[in-house]
Amino acid sequence: LIFFRYALTTTKKREEKCMKLLILIAYFIVLITIGFVCRQKATDVNGFVLGGRSVGPWLTAFAYGTSYFSAVVFVGYAGQFGWRFGIAATWAGIGNALIGSLLAWVILGRRTRIMTQHLDSATMPQFFGERFQSNSLKIAASIIIFIFLIPYTASLYNGLSRLFGMAFHIDYSVCIVLMAILTAIYVIAGGYMATAINDFIQGIIMLFGICAVIGAVLVDNGGLLKATQKLSAVPSEGWTGGAFTSFLGPDPLALLFVVILTSLGTWGLPQMVGKFYAIKSEKDIHKGTVISTVFAIIVAGGCYFLGGFGRLYSDKIAINEATGKPLFDTIIPTMLSTLPAIIVAIVIVLVLSASMSTLSSLVLTSSSTFTLDVIVPASKKKMNEMKQVVIMRIFIVFFIVVSAVIAIFKDSHPEVTFIAQMMGVSWGALAGAFLAPFLYGLYWKGVTKVATVVCFVWGCAVAVLQLIVSLCGIDVTGWGTVLGYIFKSSINSGVVAMVGGLIIVPVISLITKKQSKEEIDNMFQCYETMVEVPVKESLED
User: Fold this and answer.
1) What is the DSSP string of 336-374?
2) Angstrom distance (rounded) from CA 479 to CA 486
3) What is the structure's pLDDT at 158?
4) pLDDT at 219 (0 to 100)
């Protein structure tokens, strides 16, 4: 119906819109086909949630990268941070590559794969439950994930609204429903393996798409040199010029907080860490590390670099009448509105790819966590694996429907800011609660259950306090210089939650009861298993 509706428009517009639709239709067919082809690998829990722990380096690396960078980054963060910091916002992308990808793979990848397989854990809550021998910790972690991943999931739809409106002039709710249905089909059908293969395709689209968009925007502004000269002339408070082309931008401290939150935060996000559970072999870790890092440099670095030129379109960007500031979600769409139809089509598929890949990862994480860590333990009857997979599929539908309804409700009621604020603190809450106990739990025998509980409470408490401050519009300037700066934004408080957790866990662990030596030694014995390698990989003494 949509296709025939556009067929009635003028010839030129009809050709452009038909081209965009044909690209989208081809894209959708590929995604759904892969979902059904992968059904045979999603018949048990291990296959549905982890792809049988046999996923290669390219699929794992791309799955990691596409789960990392969504429409929130491309449309929201790139526009917002590009506006605030100019070209220096590219540091956020570099941090995402070096800290969020390279170091994450090096420090977490191998140990996560070994320990989680030894403990037979398929989710992060299961890891906490087995690592600290505590069912209550497992349930608590599941509840935290359930609460804070839903608004994060709902936010993924936001980046599509203006792009689809600009390209097709169709209702936002139609975009949401279409994206939700297609994601549900291939995730429910093929589980993790279908998600990983589709992430690989979506990642390739993102790589070529971001390069094409950057090139088109720079050409539209006379090339890199001329665009940079124009940007250097834009004034900023305390600067006569050059603020937005300077090495560290007009606010280096705020930029540092952005880099830390968006880079180090991934170490504690269950949908990101879960990718390491499925790695196939040692050599795959080495390849995956390189691939994931290069992917992040191009996609994240490209997104933030593109957003840095947003102020060149300041006369066209919509302004929030209440605050007098630009609507950040409109910056990137405005930059793209003057580009050729083929570039716009590529961008639409790029944003769809980024959103659907992250959405599939989030709903698979949410459903598997809730099923395996809450529903199955609470069931009085023992469930076979087929029944567990069925329940997971039901919860995938539930999470997708709930997030879609929230996104539609938020769009039709712009005065409701709760969901937007909730999303802003969800990243900080999850990373603040989980990063420290997970990281220390992989390396240090001395981490205690009490320290993990305190860190859970700490991360959630900081996030909830930030949410209250944001929703109620509380003036934090009277709280003192330090506290006022911390709760000035969810970015600052999120960083404090993470760094605070890294301090709290070792301190509390030193003064609280340890696990039995026999129990903890048995857990860490998995790292001492001997393996043979060829001499080309390890020299003889």
Assistant:
1) HTTS-HHHHHHHHHHHHHHHHHHHHHHHHHHHHHHIIII
2) 10
3) 63
4) 87
Helix (H) / strand (E) containing 246: none
Quickly count helices (H) and strands (E) in the chain. 26, 0
What's CA 148's distance to the chain center, in Å? Answer: 13
Provide the token pair at 118.
Answer: 């030894």
Pick from 220, 301, 245: which is nearest to 87 by CA? Answer: 245
Q: Rg of the chain over CA atoms, in angstroms?
A: 23
The DSSP string of 126-179 is: HHHHHHTT-HHHHHHHHHHHHHHHHHHHHHTTTTHHHHHHHHH---HHHHHHHH
Select from 21, 363, 62 the least CA-distant residue to 206: 62
Interatomic CA distance for residues 128 and 273, integer angstroms: 13
Distance (Å) of CA 125 to CA 35, 310, 471, 475, 524: 27, 41, 29, 36, 19
In the chain, the amino acid numbered 178 is: L
Residue 314 phi/psi, 5° resolution? -60, -30
Q: Among 151, 159, 154, 148, which Cα is nearest to 70's?
A: 159
Q: What is the SS3 assignment for 521? A: helix
What are the average pLDDT values for consecutive 10-residue runs of the chain, which has 541 residues? 53 65 78 80 72 73 79 77 91 94 92 88 88 90 86 70 62 77 83 80 82 85 90 80 85 91 89 82 83 91 90 80 72 76 73 74 81 79 81 86 79 56 76 94 93 95 88 80 85 91 95 90 86 67 52
d(Cα 25, Cα 253) in Å, to the nearest integer?
45
Cβ contacts of residue 421 below 8 Å, gap of 6+? Answer: 467, 470, 471, 490
Contact status, residue 464 vs residue 155, Cβ threshold 8 Å: no
CB-based contact 291:279 (threshold 8 Å): no
- Shortest CA distance to 157 belongs to which of 397, 410, 335, 344? 410
Q: Two tokens at 62?
A: 């791309």
Rounded CA-CA distance 429/441 in Å is 19
Give pTM, 2 decimals: 0.83
Sequence-distant (≥ 6) Cβ neighbours of residue 508 within 8 angstroms:
448, 450, 451, 454, 455
Closest CA to 243 of 92, 90, 88, 93: 88
What was the pLDDT predicted at 100? 92
Cβ neighbours of residue 448 closer than 8 Å, sequence gap 6 or more: 132, 508, 509, 512, 513, 514, 515
Q: Are 191 and 49 in contact (CB under 8 A)?
A: yes
